[in-house]
Amino acid sequence: MPSQPSEHEVRVLSRRFGLPNSASIDTYLANDGYRALEKALKEMTPDSILEELKVSNLRGRGGAGFPTGMKWSFVPRQSPKPKYIVCNADESEPGTCKDRLLMEYDPHQLIEGILIAGIVVGSHQGYIYVRGEYRYLIDILDRALEEAYARGYLGKNILGSGFDFDLYTHTGAGAYECGEESALLESLEGKRGIPRIRPPFPAVAGLYASPTVLNNVETFSSVPPIIVNGGKWYAELGTPRNGGTRLFVLSGHVKRPGVYELPMGTPLRKLIYDVGGGIIGDKKLKAVIPGGSSTPVLTADAIDTPLDFDSVAKAGSMLGSGAVIVMHEDTCIVRAALRIMQFYAHESCGWCIPCREGTNWLKKTLTRFHSGGGREEDIGLIEDLAKNMLGRTFCPLGDAAAMPTIAFVQKFRNEFEMHLAGQPCPFEKHGQLVGA
Amino acid sequence: MQFSTQLEEKFHRLAQHYPVKRSALVPMLLFAQDEYGFLSKEIIAEISRRMDLTVLDVEGTISYYSMLRTKPAGRFHLQICTNISCMLRGGDKLFDHAKTKLGIGNGEVTPDGLFSLEEVECIGACAWAPAIQVNYDFHHELTPERLDQLIDEIQRVSRV
Ligand SMILES: Cc1cc2nc3c(=O)[nH]c(=O)nc-3n(C[C@H](O)[C@H](O)[C@H](O)COP(=O)(O)O)c2cc1C
Ligand code: FES
After folding, report:
1. Ligand 2: which of B79, B85, B132 to mutate, judged by most atoms within 8 Å of the beta carbon?
2. A180 alpha carbon to ligand 1 midpoint, in Å?
3. Residue ranges per structural domain of chain A
4. Residues in chain A with pLDDT < 50?
5. Cβ neighbours of A132 in B, within 8 Å
6. Per-residue pLDDT, A433
């Protein structure tokens, strides 16, 4: 860890990974560190920074792909309330383990990105909300924060500019739902992580009901290279409306799973076969989940889909968190659907009834189905239950559970039918389960 | 109740990070648990008192977070991920193996208090699957054999 670099990578965010002491401020400073901050403070205005971001076509790496420049421009800068910057380092979407590397190997890049957000919206305080399981990263981040304070990149009168900014880490304590922005803010206020109804959006009323910029770790980490090299340069690395590179997490049945930085729009085929070395055992590809467990599965014939937000949407799914989960021919799709639903049933916070009840009924129905007790009408029931959850909850966790389920049923109906033949699971032979 | 100097210092620092006192609650609970192994009635009462919250309110918060516990775990808490990326690489076989090896089920503690076992959701190590955490330490790309070695090693070191 990190993975062996691949020759196909275009390393912008990850270019310092692998340098000796890459997390230290000295390594950072020796490799363009805090140059973006200097430029932002001394040569740019909040508006010109926003302009670069808009030109860059940077879109949020947390899941929804919302244009970052636009999000920051929604913050009412003139508001008399204090403004906050919150970094989402909850990283809990199954399949996703990229923010971890950005914090472990280049924490200062993240700090610098957060500082630039602070300059743009006139905020003087921020928090990095780190999932509880990532305790070692809190230690790494705290050390980096200490270094930044000691060298005058955080605190009062940063680089003599008159700009003040304080930044702290904050630990979660185990809850996928706390990655959802409004639940995260509740959690950061010390409460149960229950989602808030929107509008108002966090940009207007977020942390402590104050204007708040909330972005993913990778989104913030992308900002310094954009400021140093320009929005146009960044945009041109990707495809139209999908600027830059992103860290793709390749997992499942590939020969070389790992985290790889590739241009937006890299074809799925290239990721799986060239970067990932192909399918283990040279088996046939069956299915790919392209953006974390919340995103609808793609069948093998989608192999030439370019991995950018718009192209994956056109193929009927979402690029989400960039977590590409590969399944080969021996995988039982019903079982995959069941395992994913177990997760959502476990993580539903229980606030909205369609999500709380829907995930549990789906889990029970899929469990029965997979163990051989399914009935023909269950196939329609699963689809129907899932469809009835869509759009009926405070936060998108309900949709995140429903959408992949609908896709599993619609695209792999034959596998559900195969389970009806009486035997439990047709893919489980001689105790050998799905997988390696 | 007085906590250790180290923990008191942590609490003191935390209190200065937030304009609203309650924001420190979840980190305080987790840091206290790290030191004492679990959140006893006494700890909960003390933290509630310090935060000007009712015990009921704090217990309600604790029950939301999967890492917070009100009963002791083993000294070495094995958390095995069986979520999708790990499952595809044998995560559930690993979990079954651990149950047999330790002779305990999900959420249980071995009689000597050395190990506890938990099937967990994605821990953020999907590209290095199957993955587990022992307390806060990650172990990647495990096989049943490597898990055995890890458990044996812990047992050996803990005996001396
Ligand atoms: C159930 C749920 C879980 C989420 N988990 C995360 C997460 O772990 N990390 C993350 O950055 N975004 C997560 N998101 C997305 C956030 O709500 C939010 O859109 C994102 O952090 C915004 O940052 P971005 O614009 O930089 O992508 C989650 C969303 C939902 C509905
Ligand atoms: S699925 Fe096991 S670590 Fe992510």
Report:
1. B85
2. 5
3. 25-237, 245-279+287-326, 333-433
4. 430-436
5. 30, 65, 67
6. 47
Q: Can you give the pTM of this predicted structure?
A: 0.97
Q: Say whether A131 and B27 touch across the interface (CB within 8 A).
A: no
Contact B84 A336 (CB under 8 A): yes
How many domains would you assign to chain B? 2
Domain of B9, CATH number, reads 1.10.10
- Distance between CA atoms of residues A140 and A134, nearest Å: 10
Find out whether A181 and A214 touch, Cβ atoms under 8 Å: yes
What fold does the segment set A245-279+287-326 form as a domain?
Answer: Ubiquitin-like (UB roll) (3.10.20)
CATH match for A25-237 among 2.30.29.170, 3.40.109.10, 3.40.50.720, 3.40.50.11540:
3.40.50.11540
CA distances from A430 to A2, A254, A280, A422, A434 (A): 35, 23, 20, 17, 12
Q: At B112, phi and psi to the nearest 5?
A: -80, 0
Mutate-to-test residue for ligand 2 from B122, B138, B141, highest number of ligand atoms within 8 A of CB = B122
Task: Judge contact between A25 and A147, C-beta under 8 A.
Answer: yes
Q: Do A349 and B88 touch (CB under 8 A)?
A: no
Strand partners, B115: B76
Q: Tens digit of pLDDT for each residue in B79-88?
A: 999 999 999 9
The confidence band for B1, taking pLDDT boundaries of 50, 70 and 90, is confident
Query: Chain B window 87-146: which residues touch A at a Cβ cutoff of 8 Å?
Result: 87-90, 92-93, 121-129, 133, 136-138, 140
Best residue in B12, B26, B81 to probe A by mutation, most A CBs within 10 Å?
B26
Nearest Cα residue in chain A from B137 = A136
Which phi and psi (to 5°) does residue A368 adopt?
-60, -45
Please check whether residue A297 is in contact with residue A404, taking contact to mean a CB–CB distance below 8 angstroms.
yes
Q: Beta-carbon neighbour count of residue A274 at 10 Å?
A: 14
How remote is the CA of residue A64 from the centroid of ligand 1, in Å?
7
Q: What is the pLDDT of residues A177-235, one digit of tens each?
A: 999 999 999 999 999 999 999 999 999 999 999 999 999 999 999 999 999 999 999 99
Please give the residue range of the domain that contains residue B60: 5-64
Helix axes A35-42, A217-229, angle to 10 degrees: 70
**CATH class, range A333-433:** mainly alpha
Q: How many residues does chain A have?
A: 436
